[in-house]
Specification:
Length: 155
């Protein structure tokens, strides 16, 4: 089992997710992004993950963060790309270079909303997908990633 806190988990949020808390609560809940990040970090720590949060509204910045992760490595990646999910081949291409297992998470039920949200251009290259479960979906994604890389629950 990995040493406590030694495995990095990159928690990536794309466009408009910095506005959580002001977006439609019926889809996205009422938590702010920093509160969500704090709760996900606390949950992920039980597996020995150290969470590295990152958010940007600029596609190129997300691409560069994915390049950094591809080059430097990471234990695991959780990404909610926001609307980029549905059309960004640039994010997809960058994500393809990441060797760590990746979970795609959406707060809302993307399959039950507008037609354009049903398509994810990263669905076939991620190890885990969770949607429509709010913050619980992030917890599930962390649990699934911990399983994949062989971390248990510690402490
Ligand atoms: C989202 C779903 C996307 O369709 C939307 O564009 C978002 C957030 C979610 O978490 O439910 O910005 O990824």
């Amino acid at each position: 089992m990995a040493e406590r806190g030694m495995t990095s988990l990159c928690l990536l949020h794309g466009v408009n997710l910095d506005m959580l808390g002001r977006r439609d609560p019926t889809h996205y809940g009422t938590l702010t992004l920093s509160e969500l990040e704090r709760q996900v970090a606390r949950h992920a720590e039980r597996h020995g993950f150290t969470v590295q949060p990152f958010q940007t509204n600029f596609e190129g910045e997300m691409v560069e963060e994915l390049h950094r992760i591809a080059v430097e490595g990471a234990g695991a990646v959780v990404i909610n790309p926001g609307a980029w999910t549905h059309y960004s081949y640039a994010i997809r291409d960058a994500l393809e270079m990441v060797t760590a297992p990746v979970a795609e998470v959406h707060l809302s039920d993307v399959s039950g909303r507008e037609e354009f949200r049903r398509r994810s251009v990263i669905a076939d290259i991620v190890a885990v997908r969770v949607a429509g479960e709010g913050i619980e979906g992030y917890f599930k994604a962390c649990d699934a990633l911990a399983d994949i890389i062989g971390l248990g629950v510690q402490g």
